[in-house]
């Protein structure tokens, strides 16, 4: 009834052995052929509730070979970018949406032929390039004179083309009149819209102060190695300002509040979620550190590092940027000395940090050189009066200059 492999060798002329061998061959061939020829349609992933559509930017083209989880396209929404990876290895057979086209959740994006990468690559390598792609041989020069007339020069009346003899050192004197035109991505458009809305809605006013960074710099210098050893993260200045802001927001709840324009009511929050502005190539994003009032310096530094890493990798989700009650923008990382930040709606205030510079200041009647930072608070004057704004900023200054106040709850 059963024939082993050795028996098949011994009785190789047996009909049962031939029939069993043929069955195995047919089964193996059919399974492989079905896998290689399978074509799937990849659809747009679901967006967050506050996002309805996005623009497609293709990373791959028809005929490109992709591996599993390799990014095929990126969908730019109002708040973030969503990467669409390939669900399997294969070849892009068809793009169902043009580059820059608008899509919604569930819209078909592209067709993928699974497992066809090796065959496609081999065929492409063996095929000669199309004749139309071969550039024509260069025409011999008419005379050994200067280069051709630049094609980007301003229009002139039709005259017979004449070669121009360039003198040494004059090659850079001819400038192109062309300009590069780039379409604004959805994130940049949304940022521009929100900033303009803030200007049109809020009665923005800015107050300033300066912070002596001597003590916080000395504290960081003294404890940075022990802090890194224990927590696995570097101790920076942002954690001090974030913690100081949470302390000041608790002291001045109006700065942490917001006006509900639809109901004409003031909403006071009993929690502190601080948005931290992060610059990316596509625009400014503001991921949120939640529950700052209960966090330590180490917790804040770790959260900032995680959010910054996600922003650099373009992995921030909409949920990471929703719901902040206050924003901190640190222009000092770019060398800014002074500036007035714009409110991040629907919030009511924003703190602007700037660079640290050695400046002469009066200390106990004497002039000393100290590391100083200008800070600015832009606030909605409809809700926050000058007294609250100035008191808030002075609380920031006091806590950063002497962090012991946080421990003593002064």
UniProtKB/TrEMBL annotation:
Pathway: Amino-acid degradation; L-lysine degradation via saccharopine pathway; glutaryl-CoA from L-lysine: step 6/6. It comes from the Eukaryota. Gene3D superfamilies: 2.40.50.100, Chloramphenicol acetyltransferase-like domain. Keywords: Acyltransferase, Lipoyl, Mitochondrion, Nucleus, Transferase, Transit peptide, Tricarboxylic acid cycle. GO terms for biological process: tricarboxylic acid cycle. One of its GO terms (molecular function) is dihydrolipoyllysine-residue succinyltransferase activity. Residues 127-143 have a biased composition (Pro residues). Belongs to the 2-oxoacid dehydrogenase family. Residues 121-151 are annotated as: Disordered. Its EC number is 2.3.1.61. Its cofactor is (R)-lipoate. This is Dihydrolipoyllysine-residue succinyltransferase component of 2-oxoglutarate dehydrogenase complex, mitochondrial. Dihydrolipoamide succinyltransferase (E2) component of the 2-oxoglutarate dehydrogenase complex. The 2-oxoglutarate dehydrogenase complex catalyzes the overall conversion of 2-oxoglutarate to succinyl-CoA and CO(2). The 2-oxoglutarate dehydrogenase complex is mainly active in the mitochondrion. A fraction of the 2-oxoglutarate dehydrogenase complex also localizes in the nucleus and is required for lysine succinylation of histones: associates with KAT2A on chromatin and provides succinyl-CoA to histone succinyltransferase KAT2A. It comes from Cyprinus carpio carpio. Its main location: mitochondrion. InterPro entries: 2-oxoA_DH_lipoyl-BS (IPR003016), 2-oxoacid_dehydrogenase (IPR050537), 2-oxoacid_DH_actylTfrase (IPR001078), Biotin_lipoyl (IPR000089), CAT-like_dom_sf (IPR023213), Single_hybrid_motif (IPR011053), SucB (IPR006255). Residues 39-113 form the Lipoyl-binding domain. GO terms for cellular component: mitochondrial matrix; nucleus; oxoglutarate dehydrogenase complex. It is found in: Mitochondrion matrix; Nucleus. The lineage of its organism: Eukaryota, Metazoa, Chordata, Craniata, Vertebrata. Pfam families: 2-oxoacid_dh, Biotin_lipoyl.
């Amino acid at each position: 009834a059963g024939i082993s492999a050795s028996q098949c060798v011994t009785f190789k002329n047996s009909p049962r052995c031939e029939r069993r061998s043929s069955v195995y061959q047919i089964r193996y061939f059919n399974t492989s052929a079905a896998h290689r020829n399978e074509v799937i349609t990849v659809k747009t992933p679901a967006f967050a509730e506050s996002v309805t559509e996005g623009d497609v930017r293709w990373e791959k083209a028809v005929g490109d070979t992709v591996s599993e989880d390799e990014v095929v396209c990126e969908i730019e929404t109002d708040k973030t970018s969503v990467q669409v990876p390939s669900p399997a290895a294969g070849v892009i057979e068809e793009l169902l949406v043009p580059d820059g086209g608008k899509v919604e959740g569930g819209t078909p994006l592209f067709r993928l032929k699974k497992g066809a990468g090796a065959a496609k690559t081999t065929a492409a390598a063996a095929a000669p390039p199309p004749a139309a792609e071969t550039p024509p041989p260069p025409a011999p020069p008419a005379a050994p004179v200067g280069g051709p007339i630049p094609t980007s020069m301003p229009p002139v009346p039709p005259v017979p083309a004449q070669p121009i003899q360039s003198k040494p050192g004059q090659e850079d004197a001819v400038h192109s009149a062309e300009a590069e035109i780039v379409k604004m991505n959805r994130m940049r458009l949304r940022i521009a819209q929100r900033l303009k809305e803030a200007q049109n809605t809020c009665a923005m006013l800015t107050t300033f102060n300066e912070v002596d960074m001597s003590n916080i710099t000395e504290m960081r210098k003294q404890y940075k190695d022990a802090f890194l050893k224990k927590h696995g993260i570097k101790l920076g200045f942002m954690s001090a300002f974030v913690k100081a802001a949470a302390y000041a927001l608790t002291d001045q709840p109006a700065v942490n509040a917001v006006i509900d324009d639809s109901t004409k009511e003031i909403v006071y929050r009993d929690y502190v979620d601080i948005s931290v502005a992060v610059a990316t190539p596509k625009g400014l994003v503001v991921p949120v550190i939640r529950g700052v009032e209960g966090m330590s310096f180490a917790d804040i530094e770790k959260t900032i590092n995680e959010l910054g890493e996600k922003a650099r990798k373009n992995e921030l989700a909409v949920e990471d940027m929703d719901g902040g009650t206050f924003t901190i923008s640190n222009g000092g990382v770019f060398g800014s000395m002074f500036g007035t930040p714009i409110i991040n709606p629907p919030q009511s205030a924003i703190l602007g940090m700037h660079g640290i510079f050695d400046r002469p200041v009066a200390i106990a009647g004497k002039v000393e050189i100290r590391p100083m930072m200008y800070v600015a608070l832009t606030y909605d004057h409809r809700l926050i009066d000058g007294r609250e704004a100035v008191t808030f900023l002075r609380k920031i200054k006091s806590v950063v200059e002497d962090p012991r106040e946080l421990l003593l709850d002064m």
